[in-house]
Amino acid sequence: MATLIRWLGHASMYLETAGFKVLIDPFLTDNPAATLTAEKAQADFILVSHGHGDHIGDTVAIAQRTGAMVVCNYEISEWLRAKGVQNVHGQQHGGSFAHAFGRVKFTLAFHGSMLPDGANGGNPCGFLIYLRDGKKIYHAADTGLFGDMKLIGQEGIDLAILPIGDNYTMGPDDALRAVQFIQPKKALPIHYNTWPLIEQDAQDWANRVQRETHTHPVVLKPGESLEL
């Protein structure tokens, strides 16, 4: 069966794959771009890339309501346990684990990770997701450009999910270079237009990707989906 990938706004993603529901960075409450409320979100797994409030978001509430397993770094896993979330799985950079929906490897991400209450959120990460049907998704999360994206590309990426908002993450120019490094079959821009500070023209970026690479760009509106 195909994997459904839905952009929920900002950096929040929803995947349906191999019969499982997966949320990534579920920042829904107070997210002006969100197309789903935390009360209606369903999940078997929640992947959290780092501790910032616009990424860890509604993880505690959703995990407690649904019983979803939260996959995150060790420091965030301990913070979540202290908040009453016991179904957690801690990993760290370069480590991978075969979860029920697919194997997840943590990649580098150049960013911060302080938790909303000021606690240590460990190191931020991206996700290299090996789906059970053999396809591979790279969710870069919040990061600047880095040369080892070329190594990630050697895995043969079917979809790269990349921030383009600038200021806090890669902007359009560096995100284009990331596509050139990774050479995915498809690229999806996220983390833009949530607030004026990160406003970008995603279609213009997609046009550049189309002209300057062999990657097929996919621009979604919040709430829209693609199949992989």
How would you explain this protein's 3D organization?
- It is a single chain.
- By secondary structure, this protein is of the alpha/beta class.
- About 20% of the residues lie in helices and about 30% in strands.
- The strands form two sheets. A seven-stranded mixed β-sheet has the order 6-5-4-3-2-1-14, covered by helices on one side. It has a seven-stranded mixed β-sheet with strand order 7-8-9-10-11-12-13.
- Helix 5 (about 170-180) packs parallel to helix 6.
- The longest helix is centred in the C-terminal third of the chain and has 11 residues, at about 170-180.
- The N and C termini lie close together (about 10 Å).
From the alpha-carbon coordinates, what is the Rg to the nearest angstrom? 16 Å
Query: Given the C-alpha coordinates, what overall shape results?
Result: globular
- Number of β-strand runs: 14
Structural class by helix and strand composition: alpha/beta
Largest beta-sheet details: 7 strands, mixed
Poorly predicted segments: none
The name of the CATH superfamily reads Ribonuclease Z/Hydroxyacylglutathione hydrolase-like
What's the SSE pattern? EEEEHHEHEEEEEHEHEHEE
Mean pLDDT: 97
The fold-level CATH name is Metallo-beta-lactamase, Chain A
For the record, the count of structural domains works out to 1
Give the class-level CATH name: Alpha Beta
Helix content: 10-25%
